[in-house]
Automatic annotation (TrEMBL):
Protein name as it appears in the record: Tellurite resistance protein TerB
Record lineage: Bacteria, Pseudomonadati, Bacteroidota, Chitinophagia, Chitinophagales
InterPro entries reported in the protein's UniProt record: TerB-like (IPR029024)
Amino acid sequence: MELPIENEQEAAVTILFSAAMQQSGNISQQQIEHLSRAVVLCSRFRGSDLNEMTKKAIALQASHEPAEIIEYCSALITEEFRETLFAMVSEVVLLDGQINDKKTKIFALLALHLKITMERMKMILATYLIRNKWNVEVMD
């Protein structure tokens, strides 16, 4: 399988959208705002066109399974950025401070393909679950 992903930045944004949309097939305004802020504030994306990457990422969600996207895009993520990306995904997906079977599966899949250890994955997830436990839900 070949996806039209050209670099690590596009791969990372595509993974972020894929994980965020996995829960319900769409993405909330609150998730979009969090995702956008995370990308804009990350120096790894400096000089990248977030709008173009977003369009490409969303288009891919309609034509490919999340597992395919994550497997393909994870191979483009450098070792030094893997844990950071996993944390970014955790922040966006766990905005409600809750975890369920769908979220658990996506985190397990992502950790596997990004080569994140089980211990590290649990630590990152626990951190965001605690951090977001009392977040106020913003209605779209």
